[in-house]
Every structure is written in structure tokens, then in C-alpha cells.
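Hi P.,

Sorry for the delay on this. The queue was packed all week, but I finally got your sequence through. Input first:
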Amino acid sequence: DQTLANLLLLSRSEWTKQNLAVIEGPDTAYILHDRGSLTLLGAVDDIVSLLPLSPLVTGVSTRNLHWSLEKSTLQFGSTLSISNQMTAPSADISILHGTLLVVHRMNGIG
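Then the structure:
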């Protein structure tokens, strides 16, 4: 319950201009808000999950993930974008509208 509460704190409107992360063992969680983007640094085969926290997250694009997205729409509660794999030492994620939780699990840590 505490971990979930900490993750949801990142989605609060007063933090939209901040680049904040929650780190727990091998997992690092980030929040993207409207027109947000993020570059993850890691290794090939690291796991990346994208979880919509708003009803819709639109314009979702990814680069260097096994299952790539290009201007896609993700719905709250969808499992479409979980447990993806990095195909390079860095991966890019961007959105146009909504709130997206990004969880990066680094292999070999923890």
C-alpha cells in the first residue's frame, strides 16, 4: 500500500513540472504528463511497463522497445503496454496527452 501511494503521489498536478522518480530495488518509476518525454538508460532486455493513470493517454510513442508504439492511445486498466523489453541500452517514451506511469526494471539488480 505504501509503494502504491508513493507512486500515485508522482501523478499529482503540483509535480507536473518536476522530473521525479521512485526507486525500489531494481525498479524505477517515473510519471509522464501532457507532452512529456523520457529517455531510459539501462541494458538490452531490461523490462519497461507503461501504465495509464488517466482515462486515456494519447500520442504514445516509443523507441528501442521490442513492441514499439507510434502515436498510440492507451486506456486506463489496459495491459497492452506492460512487460516490454529494451532492445538497446536506451529507450525513449513520449506522450501527447494524459498521465502515464513508466516502470523500468533493470536486469541484474536486486
